[in-house]
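Students often ask what a holo structure prediction actually looks like on paper. The answer is less mysterious than it sounds. You provide the chain, you provide the ligand, and the output is a string of discrete structure tokens encoding the 3D arrangement of the protein together with aspartic acid.
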Amino acid sequence: MPSASSLVVVIGTGGTIAGVVTDTAARPGAHLGYEAGALTADALVAAVPALAALPLETHSLAQLDSSDMDHATWQALALAVTAHLARPEVAGVVVTHGTDTLEETATFLQLTVAATKPVVMTAAMRPATAPSADGPQNLLDAVRLATMPGVTGVLLAFGGSVYAGTEARKLHGYRIDAFGGGDAGPLALMQDGALRPLRAWPAPDGHAAEVLAQPLADWPVVDIVTSHAGVRGQTMLALVAAGARGIVVAGSGNGSVHRELELAAEQAQRQGVTVWRASRCVLGGVVGEVPGNAQGGGSAYALPHAGDATPAQARVRLLLSLLLQRQRQPGP
Ligand code: ASP
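The corresponding structure tokens follow.
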């Protein structure tokens, strides 16, 4: 029986970290063309000799390519993480995940789990069968971080850096240093097993925990529309007609919205749909008052914006905000 608060629970959800190239004989050293999520959490842990001596418990919650992530898995994951954190013998939880939608799941967990103990997500850009796979070191860093006293919140341990859950974003589709922390940068570095904080640690959140009790069928549809040259307002209106209750516009630059989408957004708002702006830029977000950035002019600037959040993270925030509104003011 592990001593008080020394156990780390590793929850696997799939991704490249658990990915396998099945025809390595034909394609030795391949980084692509793998089956994501093929390995269980148990197998991932077994591949890291340095973890053998640590008290760990493993669970495979899903074996998804995270590009197929869904709300049911988010709900099950947040409930599982919450339940494990409540166990006195648990020091922290590690979640292995695909990189593609990690920034969305991390945001969801940060806002729905009151993580007074560490919840450390990790991932990899190379499959487990690659000759120099990055998953084992990332997993080792994540487990070590999950045992450190005083560490709280939902975090990402990746490539020797530690990011806050709501700040982590995927910046590159292939390189192993694929993540960044937006304008805020990393929270800390993991150096030879030691944590080197770089700035003040954010308080854990979990303010939206109550939404986890809502049946999935009641979760509102929230979609993303990108503003681009030649965009059609009908695209947004078609989403409204298909049941969207919230829409994030991935605006150009500092969250600018094409006039065709502005007109559609006004119409959507008149039908009770909440429309937010984010920026489609790879770095940065939307800077200015929320709502009403006078600099840009035009009615779209009255649309609230999601600050530093990427469009995908903004979608998670809008989803949770609509769920909370519904829960606190149930309709007729
Ligand atoms: N498609 C993979 C996933 O997100 C990519 C990765 O994990 O790096 O599951």
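The domain at 220-328 is CATH 3.40.50.40 (Rossmann fold).
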